Description:
Elements: H1 9-20, H2 27-31, E1 37-39, H3 45-55, H4 62-71, E2 76-82, E3 88-99, E4 104-114, H5 123-137, E5 142-146, H6 149-153, E6 158-159, E7 163-164, E8 177-181, E9 191-194
Parallel strand pairs: 4-5, 7-9
Antiparallel strand pairs: 1-2, 2-3, 3-4, 3-9, 5-8, 6-8
Helix pairs in contact: 3-4
GO molecular function, one term: acyltransferase activity, transferring groups other than amino-acyl groups
Protein name: N-acetyltransferase
Domain N-acetyltransferase: 35-183
Amino acid sequence: MLAARDVALGDVVAELDRRSGRSGLDEKAARAAVPPIGPAAPDDRDGIAALYAEALPDEDLGALLEDLHGFGSGGVLELVARDTAGRVAGHCGFTLCGLGTRGATAALLGPLAVTPDRQRAGIGRALVQAGLERLGRAGVAHLLVLGDPAYYGRLGFAPATAVAPPYALPGDLADAWQVRTLDPAAPPPEGALAVPAPWRRAVLWQP
Length: 207
């Protein structure tokens, strides 16, 4: 179902980071006084869970996070920002998906959270930008997101009118379905988005 599922996304990103001398850290973010950003480690799970409980207490994302952790680096890239004490201050997930029938490689952004005391400090933007850079270098052509158009529009996302989400969206979320193209030479973002098991729950799309 997922044409991109066999690509070891985490392994590819780690190798590209190694070759570029990044060592898993986003240098631009560090220069901008944003906490260093790098791939999440297994021992970050408790910190990630605590982050979402604090930042998004009204959203039940525990099952999704556990499923994404268990899905492995072959199909999910998880990035975290750590403060000076080593605490997880921000987290963002990127999941490989299938898109349409023309062979374009796509990913789905989410979930994304920043600890309340560090919000509006550029951490969320830095996490997304770090993901964009890594996904682009790994050959991902398009990144989809279901999120605030005002926020993601500032990050270069546009309405994904030609991409069908896995579940019908409520009318008030129609404008929240967005895409950013990472490879202009790739087939355009169109067709149905085929998501892996962690995202096959209607409640994630029809809150």
